[in-house]
Specification:
The protein is an alpha/beta fold. It contains 14 helices and 13 strands.
Length: about 375
Amino acid sequence: MRIGIDATALPSRLYGAANYIVNLVRALEQVDFVNEYTVFAKPEHSALFTDRERFQIVPVPLASRYFRIAWEQTMLPVLARRARLDVLHSPHYTMPFAASCASVVTFHDMTFFLYPQVHRAYKKLFFTYMMRFSARHAGAIIAISESTRDDMLRILKLEPRKVFTVVYGIDRIFQPLRDEAMFAEVRQKYNLPPQYILYVGNLEPRKNLPTLLRAFAQLVRKGLPHSLVLAGSRGWMDSDIFSTVQELGLGARVLFPGYCPQPELPALYGAASLFVYPSLYEGFGLPVLEALACGVPVITSNVSSMPEVAGDAALLVDPHNVDELADKMERVLKDAALRERLSCAGPERARAFTWERTARETLAVYERAARGSA
């Protein structure tokens, strides 16, 4: 087959769906020695991929996301036709209206339908329309968790036979570390205290950080010595996070180091006493898997995909219940035996998730779509 992958949706910083796109292409290089690939990517991202035999990287200069949308709908079908593609994979929700070959589309979550209030109006309108179009017209659709697949089938009324669950993998750099020098280096770079509770992810409403802050405030009042580190880029509609910090008088105890590059994350996770991810909804929840792989005790939400990712290697909480979250945080921090159990269970759980598995299962979806048997 001739397979095209549209990687032009990659943002400047790699996280979540961006990690999926990059790692999927890299893993396909390692597992597929038969088919030919054309990868469309912005010039600044071309170096993330290897231009080699059977993997051609096509640079696509795009000045903004609006140019990217216009290019997807006008030039991408033309380029797909010129390359005589059998399958075009659009790994970020949307596909061209005028598809010139079999189409595969990846949906990473259903937040535009389930939590429209946490999105800007123009993105909500665009993605809800385009996702409905993609769901109707794609030859096959990939969901990144069973939870996301269930939401897609329920909300979009899709035929189950055309929706395939292919979960994320995890980079091999995420593993338990015992290197105090690396821990000291990351603490020094981000001015972190010796003991801290960690969250990693964008600062935006769906992540439910005000609830985490209120639970943390309960522990501070009980004399907890730890700080809370909220590591991630500022997203959108994040003012409530900062106002909650001020309301609770936590200014000196809550740290915002900003976006942390992936090579630094294993040490950031490894030096933490506890990782907490109280999101209201996740299509997958990659930071949960990263923390598990690094052997840090994890508390996460008992909704959407997070129980599916964590299994029995983490403590699960109702993300709306501040008292329950505070109680479980305190329990983990005070119970050495529980911390040890969770630290051992996390890496074992994470070993089930590999990008090689993601690539092989995605390749099977390409084959079904090309045959028209999805």
